[in-house]
Design goal:
alpha+beta, OB fold (Dihydrolipoamide Acetyltransferase, E2P), 3 domains, five-stranded mixed beta barrel, 13 helices, 24% strand
Length: 505
């Protein structure tokens, strides 16, 4: 139970969660149901359809503080220079059957919410951090998706099956990324497992192929600045920027390929399911205007490849302003949504990823839609009727879209709260930053250090998006997440965001 201090960040997080309709505490009946669950014990005779893959060189790559591990990976070379990839996904459905009390809670919230101050998990911790988490050195039940990465980076879907797996190493994005990019020696967790170094390099090779193939077909490589809150002794100690690196590319590209393989499997087996969609942008004229302001030209009709090429040119020309350009493009593209998809229907497509058939299925500990997809997959594997009718899937897709948007709003608000806390006591100080927005709605500046964004309430005349300026902190409201500045002049020197050497692809 959080304390009632006026600026207790946990209290603020609980309040905003409630305002957006989330249930912040598990009901006693839900916890009781969770405590009664029995850990899965593998027995070949009991269920011969579950393959024993505990000896496979599985590993996970995630954030340093992640406990709800959804996904582990393995690669091996195959014929014709192909690379076989297995992605094992935690079998959450085994412990959370449809209609259970835990399922009802997960359905209501729709996702785990990561506020930086406190995590509000979709599932009780005994599940998401233990029984259904692919923790290292323990046996876990999983649903495995197989696909083959061809020489050109295209994907050929393989089998989908259930298995018992054992994660050999829980790895961290930053450590593995820096090692793959030659910035640090081999991380200790890798050196402790014989053969893991070669395994990770093969995963990196597969991800490189996948990434190159998608970029050639118009995938949008965007980079936004979303500071991650660092807490210490119950308050905000710092805001740090998280950048993509080669370890993140491995997980991102395997996730996209795995989701596509699952859609292919459900479609071939005649099952209605749910797609994750980013439609062709209705605000394409505004995107064309932005390109024109840089002396570039986009076609009249939405064209993902043309937009991708424009973004690559801008990233090379001005890497410091690229995150803010990325954020503008993301807003104009519109939000992602979930929609019911029928087998044989016209694919909705994901404009940003340049793929036609895409879903969310690789994070069932964290997202409810992934649990739905898992149940659909397993119904095919065990040759049972689909657990969801089309009308039910439409309703779930609509609700999960709404919950997804609500979770993002909570997380954005709490980042603003954390920023205000970090600047508390610094009224009157002058900071350097970049203008991220300038319209009738107001002028906004993001500081370089710390990476905080606020509104310029005085002295904004002459500021335009992308200009580097000095601003003076005039006020903040921690409970509302407001930070106010006044103009203090243009910067006399150039500035670059502090960042690691960028991965070249």
């Amino acid at each position: 139970m959080p304390s009632q201090s006026p600026y207790d960040l946990s209290v603020i997080a609980h309040q905003v969660m409630g305002e957006y309709g989330f249930v912040v505490r598990f009901a006693p009946a839900v916890l009781k149901e969770t405590q009664s669950l029995i850990k899965y014990e593998y027995s070949p005779a009991a269920d011969p359809s579950v393959r024993d893959l505990r000896d496979v060189m599985w590993s996970s790559i995630d954030n340093i503080d992640s406990r709800d591990l959804d996904q582990i990976e393995y690669c091996e070379r195959a014929q014709n220079r192909e690379i076989r990839v297995w992605v094992a996904i935690a079998d959450v459905d085994h412990y959370v059957p449809k209609g259970s009390l835990v399922d009802e809670h997960a359905s209501h919230n729709g996702a785990s919410v990561y506020t930086g101050v406190e995590i509000f998990p979709m599932l009780p911790e005994r599940l998401c951090n233990d029984l259904s988490s692919l923790n290292p050195d323990v046996d876990r039940l999983a649903v495995v998706t197989e696909f083959f990465v061809l020489r050109d980076g295209d994907v050929r879907p393989g089998q989908i099956f259930r298995a018992i797996v054992r994660n050999k190493a829980q790895l961290v994005y930053e450590e593995i990324g820096e090692w793959l990019e030659g910035e640090r020696p081999l991380p200790e967790p890798v050196s402790k497992v014989e053969g893991l170094e070669e395994q990770l390099r093969l995963q990196d090779e597969a991800a490189e192929r996948l990434h190159k193939f998608r970029m050639e077909r118009g995938a949008l490589e965007l980079e936004t600045i979303e500071p991650r809150t660092v807490m210490k002794d119950g308050t905000v100690a710092d805001l740090i920027l998280v950048y993509k690196n080669r370890a993140r590319y491995i997980i991102e590209n395997f996730m996209i390929a795995s989701n596509g393989a699952m859609v292919d499997f459900l479609t071939k087996n005649g099952r209605a399911h749910i797609h994750r969609v980013v439609r062709r942008p209705e605000r394409w004229p505004q995107i064309r205007d932005i390109a024109g302001s840089f002396g570039d030209e986009l076609p009249e009709d939405p064209d993902a490849k043309a937009l991708s090429d424009f973004l690559l040119r801008r990233r090379q020309a001005d890497p410091d302003r690229f995150p803010d350009l990325s954020l503008t493009i993301i807003k104009l593209l519109g939000s992602g949504e979930y929609v019911m998809a029928e087998p044989g229907g016209v694919p909705f497509g994901h404009f940003g990823l340049a793929v036609h058939d895409y879903t969310h299925s690789t994070a069932p500990n964290r997202r409810y839609i992934d649990v739905i997809i898992q149940r659909l997959l397993k119904s095919v594997l065990v040759k049972e009727r689909t657990p969801y009718g089309k009308g039910e899937l439409e309703s779930i897709a609509y609700k999960c879209t709404e919950r997804d948007h609500a979770a993002k709003k909570v997380e954005r608000f709490m980042r603003k709260v954390a920023a205000a806390v970090l600047l508390n006591g610094r009224i009157g100080e002058v900071f350097e930053g970049i203008v991220t927005g300038a319209s009738f709605k107001g002028t906004y500046v993001r500081l370089f250090q710390p990476p905080v964004e606020g509104r310029v309430i005085r002295g904004e005349a002459g500021m335009h998006v992308g200009s580097k300026v000095r601003v003076r902190l005039t006020a903040m409201d921690i409970e509302k997440g407001f930070v106010d500045f006044e103009g203090a002049g243009q910067m006399a020197r150039d500035y670059r965001y502090p960042r690691p050497r960028r991965n070249k692809r």
